[in-house]
């Protein structure tokens, strides 16, 4: 694979040296640097880099104006802000100017390279992620079920869909954020939830609140373990789960996601369950 080409925009020679050293040490090709708006336009037009690292405070201009001019040259050029200034207003303005990431000085090499890779490897990385996540979530479900109940899950089929989910009675929804955003839904009947809870608690559950808490925690373990496995595959993913939300009722429907999701039918000792999971290429959290 060809080296990714980078232009450094910074009016500090010291910062240019630091950034250049980190990039080249990690396999990137620095093809130029600039410290003013005119230099930015000239260097970017000439070199057509894959990425520009952008200082926000520059003489006679700022990083936002420079970014606007870069995207006039080529909208496909990615820009990462590298600045000592960092606050909510700056982050929002950076997003408004289509800056893809934000790293604060002094630069931590590992965090900086992670942010660069998140921005540059998006297309190839997302394809790889799509091939990974469903098998890993199935593995996490099987492992959690076996460890907590000493029983085996059997997968009957899977389909890609964005249809509304008609719940069997209890549905747990877990939101996931990181490089890609998504959700996991675990759905089952009240009878299955009760039987699973009894097995996990090793006693009969006497309260509905116990069942809801147990199923919510089981789904939380499945999603958390799956995200941990994905993060070990590539720490760029940076996935984290939100607290589970449990819904229950006789006529419960979960609205369709804006993205296509995989629905997997699972046979267990406690009855049939549905695992629904999907991700989109949303905004990742900036470093």
Automatic annotation (TrEMBL):
Lineage: Bacteria, Bacillati, Bacillota, Clostridia, Thermosediminibacterales
Signal peptide: none
Function, as annotated: May play the central regulatory role in sporulation. It may be an element of the effector pathway responsible for the activation of sporulation genes in response to nutritional stress. Spo0A may act in concert with spo0H (a sigma factor) to control the expression of some genes that are critical to the sporulation process.
PANTHER family: PROTEIN PILG, STRESS RESPONSE REGULATOR PROTEIN 1
InterPro entries linked: Bact_response_regulator, CheC-like_sf, CheX-like_dom, CheY-like_superfamily, Sig_transdc_resp-reg_receiver
Domain called Response regulatory: residue spans: 5-120
One BP annotation, GO: chemotaxis
Keywords: Chemotaxis, Phosphoprotein, Two-component regulatory system
Matches recorded under CDD domains: CheX
Gene3D superfamilies: 3.40.50.2300, CheC-like
UniProt-listed SUPFAM superfamilies: CheC-like, CheY-like
Record-listed 4-aspartylphosphate modification sites: 55
Name of the protein this chain belongs to: Stage 0 sporulation protein A homolog
């Amino acid at each position: 694979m060809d080296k990714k080409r980078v232009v450094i925009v910074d009016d500090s020679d010291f910062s240019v040296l630091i950034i250049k050293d980190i990039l080249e040490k990690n396999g990137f090709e620095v093809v130029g640097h600039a410290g003013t708006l005119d230099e930015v336009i000239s260097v970017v037009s000439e070199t057509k880099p894959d990425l520009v690292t952008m200082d926000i405070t520059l003489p006679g201009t700022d990083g936002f104006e420079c970014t606007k001019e870069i995207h006039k040259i080529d909208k496909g050029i990615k820009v990462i802000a590298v600045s000592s200034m960092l606050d909510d207003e700056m982050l929002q303005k950076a997003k408004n100017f289509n800056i893809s990431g934000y790293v604060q000085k002094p630069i931590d090499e590992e965090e900086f390279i992670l942010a660069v890779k998140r921005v540059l490897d998006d297309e190839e990385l997302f394809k790889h992620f799509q091939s990974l996540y469903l098998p890993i979530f199935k593995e996490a479900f099987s492992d959690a079920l076996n460890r907590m109940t000493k029983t085996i899950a059997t997968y009957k089929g899977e389909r890609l869909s964005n249809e509304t989910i008609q719940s069997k009675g209890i549905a747990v929804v877990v939101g996931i954020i990181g490089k890609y955003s998504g959700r996991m839904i675990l759905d089952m009947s009240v009878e299955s939830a009760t039987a699973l809870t009894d097995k996990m608690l090793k006693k009969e559950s006497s309260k509905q609140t116990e069942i809801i808490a147990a199923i919510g925690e089981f789904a939380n373990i499945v999603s958390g373990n799956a995200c941990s496995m994905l993060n070990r595959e590539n720490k760029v993913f940076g996935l984290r789960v939100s607290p589970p939300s449990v819904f229950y009722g006789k006529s419960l429907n979960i609205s369709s996601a804006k993205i296509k999701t995989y629905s997997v039918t699972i046979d267990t000792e406690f009855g049939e369950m549905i695992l629904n999971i999907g991700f989109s290429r949303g905004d990742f959290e900036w470093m």
